[in-house]
Each structure stands twice: as C-alpha cells, then as structure tokens.
Amino acid sequence: MCPVTVLATAPARTRRSAFFANLGQPLYPAIESQSVDPVRNPYAPGAGQRPPELAGRDRELQQFEVVLERVARGRPERSMVVTGLRGVGKTVLLNTFKSMAMQRLWGTGKIEARPDQSIRRPVAAALHMAIRELAPRHRAPERIEEFLGVLKAFAMRDPGAAKGTSHWSPGIEVPASRGRADSGDLEIDLTELFVDAAGVATDLAVGIALFIDEMQDVPPADVSALCAACHELSQTGGPLVVVGAGLPHLPSVLSASKSYSERLFRYARIDKLDREAADLALILPAREEQVEFTQDALDALYDAADGYPYFVQAYGKVAWDLAPRSPITLDDVKVSAPEAEQELAVGFFGSRYERATPAERDYMHAMAQIGDEPVPTSEVADALGRKPSSLSPARDSLIKKGLIYSAERGLIAFTVPHFGRFLRAQPI
C-alpha cells in the first residue's frame, strides 16, 4: 500500500509552540481593553462537541496516526479503545480520529451502542456508509455489489426485525447473498463480514475504520462476537480497524468476553487535563478573538474546572459572556462561577440524577458521603444499614444507566467527575 502522510495535529503543535515562546506576553497588548463580544464566544460545552482547541490529547492523536500509517504500509495493527469518565472528551476524540481517517480517504462508519440493542443492524448501516465512501474509487463495480449482497444478507438476520416479518431489509438495491454472513450466529457472521469488507479496502490500498461510541453498552454476546471478528482480522492483517470509546470499566467488559481481548486492542485512558493543557484550551481560542485572561483568572478557572475538559469549556463560556472587557479578570470569574455551576447542576449533573429511582438515589447519596474515590460496596451497604445482596438491583441498574461503574471487584465509582460533590449539596 502507498503511504499517505497526513499530520492532523501539526497546526495545533505549531500554535502551541508559538504560545509557549511568548508565555506571559499579551498577544494583543494594544487592544486589551476592548469589549468582549458574547457572539464571538469560542467555547463549546456540548455533548461530543469539539472544543476550539483540542488540548492535551497529542499523545492519543499520535497513537492513531501510527495506526493509520501502519495500515497504509500493509502492516498488522491492533484496533484501539479509548476509555475515561464522562466529560473528558472521548466522543470528541473519536470524531477527531474519524476525520483523520477520512483525510486519508478511508471508508468510515460510526455507531453508538445501546445496552438493549444488538449491534448487527447499526454495524450493517455503518459499514454500508463506509463502502459507499469507497465505491466511487473502485474499478470493479461488481466487486462492490458482491460485498453489498453479503452486507444485506448480514443485516437481514437482525433479531430486532419487526414482529410478523422474517427480515429487516436495509436500503441496498442488490439481492442478498447466500451462504456468507447469514448464519444467524453473530460471531460467525460478523467475522465473515469484516473479512469481506477488509478485502474491498485492500483492493483500493486504503483502510476501513468502524467507530463505536459507548462501547461498554454493547450486549455481552455481541462483545464476544466483536472480539472474535477483530481477532480474525489481527491474524489475517486485513485493513479494517475498530475504534471504541467507553467508560473506565470497558477493558474489563472486553476481557470478561474473550481472554485474549487485552492483546487485541491498543488501550488509551484519558483523564482530566493538566494545568498547561487546560490553560491552552482557554487561552488559544481567546487569542484568536483578540481577548486575554489575567493569570489569577486562569488560576481560578483551573480550580473550578479541575482540568476536566467539559468543565473548562463550561466555565470559560460563562466567564466570557459576563466579562465586560478584555482581559478577563478574577472578578469576572467570581461573578460568573455561580451561573456556570447552576448550568452544570441542571444540565450535566441534574439530568443524570433525575434518571435514577428513589432507591438508586439513596445508593448514590451513600456513595457520595463515603468519598469521591472508588468506594467499597460493603461500606455503601453499611451506610444504608442493608445487606450488600439486597442492594444489588439498585447497583446493577445504576451501572446499566451509566451513572456508576465497577472500578474493580468490590469497588464502585461515579462515571461523572464531581458527581459526589454535587450530591452532597443536594437534600436527601
């Protein structure tokens, strides 16, 4: 395969070098007192919404560049899994990886897993999109049609087809093939589908990337099938990679399915930003709009956000909206912090809290009173005056809802940073 080098992070690195070369020197000293226009607010606190400056993730971006380059050179490469708490930017990183693959003219598709849904139909739709991206460049249309026939056969064995019908039919205008990816056994079918999709990519000397968000919610039987299919690809060296993102316990979900899963994936754990990266996430977008922060304002913003990317954007956005002029000062941060905290309490924390039943809320309040680190389930039971076995339904439901996770055997933790602090401020 012919390598195509696309250094997606080079511009960001160049800007950061310039930033550090002039650290402590205002970029626009002549216009520091200009008004701060809310319309030009660069910060973007949203679910999966890319911030204007993707700070602190160079290592992960470089790791994915290596995956892309190795596949381009025809070398075997593991699929990749990104894990972390909610609000650290997993979905943003996944979308950035997808853009990087598209820049290399790969076929790409993305799904969001759900605990009550087989991945057969979403994977079929995602690979259909990936092949459609590749089809115009393929010199043998019959080869594409052959794969689409296999894809349609795979999709039509979806167990979630409407009651009273034997099949679910995707929008593929070719007859379904027989005898390939249509056994009804997802592990067999997914493996055959991945191998055939990789064959199409090989013809074009490119790759295919399937991105799976909320990967911890893939049903257990489907996780086993996914691992088996990736295992086959790793042995054949097919140019198809799966890139997943999920909560911190995702590696244990995968290893519980297949003992060899720890060798199938390249794992990248992402966490809150260090001080340098958090400052970059605020300063560089502001300087694009000719706005500065004072040093004590940055100190206060870091203390409030604790380096979590979503919080950095949330506090930065409100501070910008309420600041009358540049530079944004400590007083501006003090005035804006209560409003930012209220928005987080309603939209980020409160929306999750409302999903819990009264019994589940009691369980979480008990966790919060014990501490913010992973806590023993036995201590939660003691705090509630209950036997641990009687609390299993509430704990399991909270895990299924994505509000807590099992950090390791006997320990549980919140999936949302600062959730314990939020709960301690709520009436019981």
UniProtKB/TrEMBL annotation:
Keywords: Heme, Iron, Metal-binding. Residues 202-353 form the Cytochrome c domain. The keyword ATP-binding does not apply. InterPro entries: AAA_16, Cyt_c-like_dom, P-loop_NTPase. The keyword Iron applies. Pfam families: AAA_16. GO terms for molecular function: electron transfer activity; heme binding; metal ion binding. This is AAA ATPase domain-containing protein.
